[in-house]
Design a protein that fits this description.
Elements: E1 3-7, H1 12-24, E2 32-38, H2 45-57, E3 67-72, H3 76-87, E4 91-96, H4 109-116, E5 121-125, E6 135-139, H5 151-161, E7 164-171, H6 181-194, E8 198-205, H7 209-219, E9 224-227, H8 242-250, E10 255-257
Parallel strand pairs: 1-2, 1-4, 2-3, 4-5, 6-7, 6-9, 7-8, 9-10
Antiparallel strand pairs: 5-10
Helix pairs in contact: 4-8
């Protein structure tokens, strides 16, 4: 991982994402952070640049040369995807204010981006606690993993911080809890790709998968939640990534979308 991009609009959520990203790169001096601001019509670019430089200067322990600024016009999603190709972006770190539990149908800028962008995204909730990364919970359904390449980002993050990865599978029917043939194949894949960072796997019963995940996070020490959208699974069902969208809206824990 060498290049990280952060959409930045001076909001509390984007400032929190920048704080997180600066902590994220402390162990790897070769990583560059690109701070991207999409300006509105009539904005003074020189003034925007001064504001961004002032914010960057506040990170005393981080070389300013590691944070590059980008100011441009355009729509957020196509602009980020264009920069992804041009700058070889490995990860987007994006802040979010989220949405209330009863606001599933109200998309946010972050939830729309996560659904439309085909690249790894680390979503940082506005109220996420101070940076810590020792335990990652990967939520995985019953489907067989088809695209193993998405796991390289998870391995990279685990290696960087020595983080353990716990696998969580929520099943709606108690009778299906346990290892199926696909579960065993996934287990072998995860153990191989995650090396010694793989810890263990838990199966829980809950008719509401999101609720099951959230309840698990409340009772376990988790610093990051990770999910593989169904585009990387063998069946390809639910390709709209409904669970990913809902978790992006509601999570209080940093969420790594392995796309």
């Amino acid at each position: 991982m060498k290049n990280i991009l952060i959409p930045f609009d001076f909001s509390r959520a984007s400032l929190n994402a920048l704080d997180y990203a600066v902590e994220f790169i402390t162990k790897e001096p070769s990583i560059l952070l690109y701070l991207l601001h999409i300006k509105a019509d009539g904005d003074n670019e020189e003034e925007l640049q001064k504001k961004m430089n002032k914010i960057i200067s506040e990170y005393k322990d981080t070389s300013v040369s590691k944070i590059k600024t980008l100011i441009c016009s355009g729509k957020l999603i196509p602009t980020i995807l264009n920069y992804r190709e041009e700058l070889e972006i490995d990860l987007v770190i994006m802040g979010t204010k989220g949405a209330a539990l009863d606001e599933d149908d109200i998309p946010t800028r972050t939830s729309k981006f996560v659904q439309e962008a085909n690249l790894p995204v680390l979503v940082i909730p506005e109220d996420a606690s101070k940076f810590k990364l020792g335990t990652i919970i990967l939520t995985l359904g019953k489907e067989k993993i088809a695209d193993k390449d998405a796991l390289y980002t998870l391995l990279d993050v685990s290696r960087r911080f020595g983080a353990e990865v716990h696998i969580l599978t929520i099943k709606k029917d108690k009778a299906t809890i346990g290892y199926s043939e696909d579960d065993e194949q996934n287990e072998n894949i995860l153990q191989y790709f995650l090396e010694n960072f793989y810890s263990h796997r838990s199966f829980l019963e809950n008719e509401d998968i999101e609720k099951g995940i959230m309840e698990y996070l409340e009772t376990h020490d988790a610093d990051m939640l990770a999910i593989m959208p169904n585009t990387h699974l063998d069946s390809g069902k639910a390709s709209r990534g409904e669970l990913t969208r809902i978790l992006t809206l509601h999570t209080k824990t940093p969420l790594l979308v392995l796309d």
